[in-house]
Amino acid sequence: MNLRNNIRSAVFPAIVIVPALLVLVLLTHAESEISVKIRDLVSIDGIRENQVLGYGLVVGLSGTGDTRSELTASSLSNLLKNLGLDAEETYRAKNVAAVIITATLPPFARAGDRIDVTVSSINNAKSLEGGVLVQSPLKGADNQIYAVAQGPLSLAKIEKGQGTVKTVARVIGGALIERNVESEFIDKGNIQLMLKEWDFTVANSILSSIKELYPASEPAIAKEGKIRLKVPDNVSVSEFISKIFEIEVTPSYSAKIVINERDATIVMGGEIKISEAFVSREGISVKIEGKSSTLSQKAGSAAHIPDTASVKDLVDTLNHIGASTKDTIAIIKALKDAGAIHAELIIK
After folding, report:
1. Domain range holding 240?
2. Together in a domain, 202 and 277
3. Each residue of 94-145: pLDDT tens digit?
4. Is 322 part of any domain?
5. 277 pLDDT above the threshold of 90
6. Are 221 and 154 in a shared domain?
7. How far apart (Å, rounded) are the C-alpha atoms in residues 66 and 92?
8. H-helix or E-strand spanning residue 99
């Protein structure tokens, strides 16, 4: 194996590809200093999505429906009775399937709007392909009907080589909203912002920026970490929210490393440092040494890295000595367990 004698430590690419399709996405120090609009960091308390749920029947299947379900048979009989048809006998047609229907109502949903729904088989149907969902009510957590779903099903296109799931389908624009969804986000002239990821530094930056633009809003931290704002008397609610959402601040969150072992992806932000440590795994040795060391690679699959280096330098070195995806992830996890990596490690 031809190994390079050293690695340039001055400039590294933003994306490093390791063998076996390991992708490392790095946010450099310069990138972490960019400004972000407040709208991307917060949400408004009271403005949220709502889930709805329903039960229904899919008809028109080509012999791939439920075959041994009393629930499906009785549901079909009840449906025909409601249509005024004689349904004394029990129907066991193989072109019908019982399904659960799920959907999400957007904030400020209004009667007459349409939303997509997901339809999932709950019995032994082999496929929902080619089926049509019969009109079905969708209820919220308060047991009130908010939408009615109906329409032809569409299955997701499957990429070559991937497994097929034909018992889950969607009806695009298949649910018609029947009830307005009211969003109460103003309380006695106040609104509250919720950070999508809580951080005192970011919260303080938002407070200072809003106070500078609208002193009369009296921004302050309320209970549960929410940022309370008073809508100024001389400004409309829509203008006030629009203006503060356009304010730019510099986010500053704690260092994190996210590893998705399923698709072999590592994502990290900032220059995450490594302390002195030694790891050996299946013929690969990683030694993080004193500050006087230099970043280099030696024969025998040994990586010598100074403790002033970052996790990025570690992965770049492992890449050059031919470490596999599995080895790289295992070494990062071992260094974290040893307390040598100073960042939160999230495994998915």
Report:
1. 36-47+184-249
2. no
3. 899 999 999 999 999 999 999 999 999 999 999 999 999 999 999 999 999 9
4. yes
5. no
6. no
7. 8
8. strand 96-105
Cβ contact 340:276 at 8 Å: yes
Mean pLDDT of the chain: 79
Q: At what angle do helices 311-320 and 325-337 cross, to 10 degrees?
A: 150
Please say whether the beta carbons of 275 and 342 come within 8 A. Answer: yes
In this structure, are residues 259 and 347 in contact, taking their beta carbons and an 8 Å threshold? yes
7 located within any domain: no
Considering the domain architecture, whether residues 64 and 138 belong to the same structural domain is answered as yes
pLDDT in tens, 73-96: 888 888 888 888 876 665 667 899
Report the range of poorest mean pLDDT among 6-10, 40-44, 66-70, 196-200: 6-10
Residues in the chain: 348
Verify that 69 and 119 share a domain, yes or no: yes
More confident residue, 62 or 158: 62
Q: Which residues contact 328 (CB under 8 A, 6 or more apart)?
A: 18, 22, 266, 315, 318, 319
Do 59 and 149 fall into the same domain? yes
Q: Cα–Cα distance between 117 and 280 in angstroms, integer? A: 50
Name the DSSP class of 307: T
| DSSP class per residue in 67-113 | SS-HHHHHHHHHHHHHTT----SPP--TTEEEEEEEEEEPTT--TT-
Return d(Cα 197, Cα 200) in angstroms, integer.
10
- Residue 5 domain flag: no
Domain boundary, last residue among 218, 249, 280:
249
For residue 206, give the nearest of 150, 168, 244 by alpha carbon: 244
Count of domains forming the chain: 3
Residue 315 has pLDDT above 70, yes or no: yes
